Amino acid sequence: MAILRVNGEERQYDGDSSMPLLWYLRDELGLIGTKFGCGQALCGACTIHVDGTAMRGCQTTIADADGLSVTTIEGLAADGDHPLQIAWRELNVPQCGYCQSGQIMQAASLLKDTPQPTDEDIDSAMSGNICRCGTYPRIRAAIKQAAAATQGAKL
Question: Where in the numbering of this chain does the 2Fe-2S ferredoxin-type domain appear (predicted)?
Fold first, then answer.
């Protein structure tokens, strides 16, 4: 049996511990904000936080997360008012929107570790998250806006 804390709530899972965490989150818990993209940890659509670190849910197993804290886009901010979520809305970042939860989760990890990132920091941290619509300039602008809004505050 695996025990995980998902978005602040303790959960137990008695099934196959080699199952990707993405399937558990989506199919068992109904947390469908985290998306399946490539299944090979190459696109970033499934980015979640495991103990505060951005990880790919498609390649992270239940066993990998046993005893750890998992945060999905649904758990990032109770009312969708995380500075990144606000910036995403204000700057109309998404087009199709499919990659956006992964983009936001990756950006939140960046801002946690680098509260005032440079363009190079953003490019490096976000390079593994693919946006088919090509909204990279708006993604960068939203990250900068969120960083400025928090002015180094812990996210």
Answer: 1-76
